[in-house]
Amino acid sequence: MELLPLGPVMFVDTPGLDDEGALGAERVRKAKRVLNKTDIALIVADGLQAVRDFSLEQTILTMTKEKGIPSLVILNKQDKWDGASPDAALPADICVSAKTGYHVEELKELIGRRLPAGDSDPRLVGDLVAPGDLVLLVIPIDSSAPKGRLILPQQQVIRDILESGAIAAACRDTELSETLVRLGQPPRLVITDSQAFARAAMDTPDTIPLTSFSILFSRYKGDLKTQIEGVAAMETLADGDIILMAEGCTHHRQCEDIGTVKLPRWIRDYTGRELIFETASGGEFPEDLSRYKMVVHCGGCTLNPKEMASRIAQAKNQRVPIANYGTLIAQLKGVLKRSLSPLPGYCDLL
Prior knowledge:
- The chain is of the alpha/beta class.
- The protein starts with a strand and ends in a 10-residue tail after the last helix.
- The chain has helices spanning about 20-35, 45-50, 55-65, 105-115, 150-165, 175-185, 195-205, 215-220, 225-230, 260-270, 305-315, 325-330, 335-340, and strands at about 1-5, 5-10, 40-45, 70-75, 95, 135-140, 165-170, 190, 210, 240-245, 275-280, 295, 320-325.
- The protein is globular and about 75 Å long.
- A hairpin with a 3-residue loop joins strand 1 and strand 2 (about 5-10).
């Protein structure tokens, strides 16, 4: 939703934390997982109850401090206090009443002030092109493509190209060669779906820079350096090793699904090993990664940068290599160096 003065935001409302036993512990675990994608935490408590027991709220407040997440403690139901504030002994930032609207506008302003001032928004592709440049997008339309629409990475890349004053053109991988001929001039950049890397690399002259949607998203939302280094783990795989295939979204899996069918097949063919593949999708991502030899993650287009960074940091902290669909497929198809060449500084990592 739109929240002035911040702009577009997403609220995640966690379950209450006041149940005891196993259910209470599960709710705390869920809240802790939500913190992995949180830019600011609003810890809301009933002001009168919090005076008697603030322990559960304190648990979450401690978690936010450990994770370095800005937080606000908000005491609600001010309309019931009869003029006596209960917050003297509590680490409260503001008292509000959701019923009367007391201090709600002030809370919005406080949220805006508490969020750290970041750098200018990163660009998916806008820093790689100039106004008037032509960018060609290679978009396969096969059994795994959603009916009647483009997927989110394709939409976002097109939007960023247009915001840059550049020109976006699109074709299927099966018409790439013909499109390049008919354009009349070479595009500044070709961006392909990772699944079509091999054909796109073959049909695109070496003089034209080539990369993929997934690699651009890895740079935009994650840690591309770490996911390039993670590719090397394929060279150390042995029979029986377990690989986690992780995706940020949930979707109906087709017969040639990239995460559960194509990539496992390509990895087995590349390594010659009998490997075990497990999957995680949506908001679920294992807390303990120690059983995995490596993690292969999608581009993360449905995850915010905070959550994607958290997953990568989790893998790094547990010393489990993590690669991105785009970097891994580029390596499998022998075009990793070429796919990184449009991105300044990354080829030096190979």
